[in-house]
Design a protein that fits this description.
- The structure is a homodimer of 364-residue chains.
- Helix content of chain A is 28%, strand content 29%.
- Chain A starts with a strand and ends in an 8-residue tail after the last helix.
- Chain A has helices spanning 10-19, 36-40, 50-55, 69-77, 85-92, 94-103, 117-123, 212-222, 264-272, 299-303, 333-348, 352-356; strands spanning 2-6, 25-30, 43-46, 59-62, 111-114, 129-134, 144-148, 151-155, 161-165, 171-179, 185-187, 191-196, 199-205, 227-236, 239-246, 286-292, 308-312, 322-329.
- Chain A contains 12 helices and 18 strands.
- In chain A, strand 2 (25-30), helix 2 (36-40) and strand 3 form a beta-alpha-beta unit.
- The first copy, chain A, has 3 domains: 2-81, 3-Layer(aba) Sandwich (Rossmann fold); 110-165, Dna Ligase, domain 1 (2-Layer Sandwich), CATH 3.30.1490; 171-356, D-amino Acid Aminotransferase, Chain A, domain 1, CATH 3.30.470.20.
- In chain A, strands 10, 11, 12, 13, 14, 15, 16, 17 and 18 form a 9-stranded antiparallel sheet that branches. In chain A, strands 5-9-6-7-8 form a 5-stranded antiparallel sheet.
- Chain A is an alpha+beta fold.
- The A-B interface holds A 17, 20-23, 39-40, 42, 258-259, 261-262, 266, 275-276, 278-279, 281, 283-284, 300-301, 303-312, 314, 329 and B 17, 20-23, 39-40, 42, 258-259, 261-262, 266, 275-276, 278-279, 281, 283-284, 300-301, 303-312, 314, 329.
Chain lengths: 364, 364
């Protein structure tokens, strides 16, 4: 069994680390043979050799969904692509994703579609406060603007946009869920996510469900989805609204690498390979702290003596870039939170802004 | 940081799987580039290129200690070898290992040394029942004979032997322990081991300590050991006696791959790399079932719906050969035992003898 992974970053890297135990081999198609997943793949293929990549793979999946459609067209034609193009196409244009949610009765913030930013600002007046998000190529908080009474408070967006009612949520949460090739759905216990400068900084699991599991099952089934999916939610007054989904393993599911009976990565590889999934048991409250921008030279000293360990992706340092994460477990959720905050302080100290913000001289 | 592993089997394979998350790279020196560890190494070296192997490694360790001394002499000369030769040399000759135990006050069965099997039988008369073990090249129950009142009941041995008083133990147990480069010792919770035909068939952790931790600390310190070590014990009347130790990660420590805060493999890589160890927390009762001789074609069906997952080493099938194992966790130790027995039955059914016994037509 050989799985082809499109994309060569840390998600593919962890898919390989977790999937090898099952006797599975891996091809990686990506930008560079020096990327994290490329370095440990059985074979690396540049995007210019996609047909060879697909031909030598039993199944093909994504770790990075923003690849040109023609690149994966051949995998689709061969019936080897999981998840299918449908979920990926929705991600190419935020307005299609939003429309899919509302068409299928999946709770999400009210929105309008605009052809450009100026029109978006105009439409935003329907809400007292709103978020304008560009439909194409926006991620990790890029291509978004916060607007109040027609005035841009922060950020910017380009081209076609959605204008979303600003949700004054109590907190953000997410669920890692999955659907196998036979239509069976399942999920890991959800996590509470803490973002900073539009990027996930840390998360903690478990958190109450607030309807996330039911919504995830509806979304998976509506899409005829096959594989692992991450869904981000806003939680307000104990109710969950979908913010967005990712048709792949997800950063907010990395906590499943420690303190769980199975990781999101192994589960995804199992589904692709048509092997039975493992029932996800959370042994103990678990979470992660992302390492973004810069790797502390004393990372192992920071974690010394703690119930914590790092995954170091082997990527060059760059502002706002995820270059590693720390897995953390603890006996109680309160202990977990204290430990995570302590580790976050150890990693960032006063450097959070310079590592994460788009413009390090602006206030957050 | 690049670690060189001498030996290319499953222990090195799991060391690499577990060590990569730390950003460590791996060289493997072994018989074949197609062996489990060789296939996923950053670089493979045949034993004929040991100097190159050592030169391109920051540190060198074993996953298989029965390599000729001259092969690792160069690593030793460079000060790169962990653990040191001392512990390995003891393993080359059982009589030296036994002498080391008794010299250092480490409880072990009474014994005599003989130059040949005939003399061993003669000396065995000092005990009503004894086990004669050849001093060189015996492992997994090979090169051993059970003797009662001077009569061989089963097995055989060659050359220099030790004659050990037969311990009518209540059960076998083992501990995975470690000592870092700064002399700090630690251990995982011990496991109860069940052997069949002289090979570990399954184990279950935790089991009571019975003095194993204290003995392990004494042995590690007496040897000035650096790295992870597995020690096997006989437990009789709630007291532990050392059977033997392995100067490396050990089959009875594979349960640390699931349900623990850190695995024996990651711990070993950390010690070699002079990174802080992780405090081993056993989240939940954990054990393994070894897959020996033959891989069931329905292994994933056997495990379906269970809190269990396999590690498939990618080795050719052969009687008595360990070609994989299954990790199992459960909420209670009783549940763990039931689940392990169920999985063992699923894997072997009536084939245990044909997969494990040296002579499949003899009775066990």
């Amino acid at each position: 069994m050989r799985i082809g992974i499109t994309g060569s970053g840390q998600l593919g890297w962890m898919m390989i680390l977790e999937g090898r135990k099952l006797g599975v081999e891996f091809n990686v198609a990506g930008e560079s043979p020096n990327d994290p997943a490329s370095r440990i793949a059985d074979s690396f293929f540049p995007y210019t050799r996609m047909n060879d990549f697909v031909d030598s793979s039993d199944f093909v999946t994504f770790e990075f969904e923003h690849v040109p459609g023609d690149v994966i067209q051949y995998a689709m034609d061969q019936g080897k692509l999981f998840p299918s193009m449908e979920s990926v196409v929705l991600k190419r244009d935020r307005s299609r994703e939003k429309k899919f949610f509302t068409d299928h009765g999946i709770p999400t913030a009210k929105y309008y579609v605009s052809d450009d930013f100026t029109d978006a600002i105009e439409k935003s007046k329907a809400f007292s406060k709103s978020v304008v998000k560009q439909c194409f190529n926006g991620y990790d908080g890029k291509g978004q603007a916060l607007v109040e009474n027609g005035a841009v408070l922060s950020g910017s967006a380009e081209g076609k946009c959605i204008v979303e009612e600003f949700i004054d949520y109590d907190f953000e949460a997410s669920i890692i869920c999955y659907r196998d090739r036979h239509g069976r759905v399942g999920s890991f216990l959800p996590s509470l996510n803490f973002n900073s400068f539009g990027i996930l900084l840390y998360n903690e699991s478990p958190v109450n469900d607030y309807g996330m599991r039911e919504i995830s099952e509806k979304l998976l089934s509506s899409l005829n989805y096959v594989g692992v999916m991450g869904i981000e939610f806003f939680i307000r007054n104990e109710k969950a609204m979908v913010n967005e989904f990712s048709p792949r393993v997800h950063n907010s599911g990395h906590h499943t690498l420690m303190g769980s009976s199975v990781s999101q990565f192994e589960q995804h590889v199992r589904i692709l390979s048509d092997l039975p999934t493992v029932n996800p048991v959370l042994y103990r409250p678990s979470g992660i702290v992302n390492i973004i921008g810069k790797m502390p030279t004393n990372i192992f000293d920071i974690l010394k003596g703690k119930e914590a360990k790092p995954y170091i992706y082997g990527k060059a340092e760059r502002r706002r870039r995820k270059i590693g994460h720390v897995n953390v477990t603890a006996e109680t959720i309160d202990d977990l939170h204290s430990l995570i905050v302590e580790i976050k302080e150890g990693i960032y100290g006063k450097t959070l802004e310079s590592n994460l913000s788009i413009n390090p001289h602006s206030s957050s």
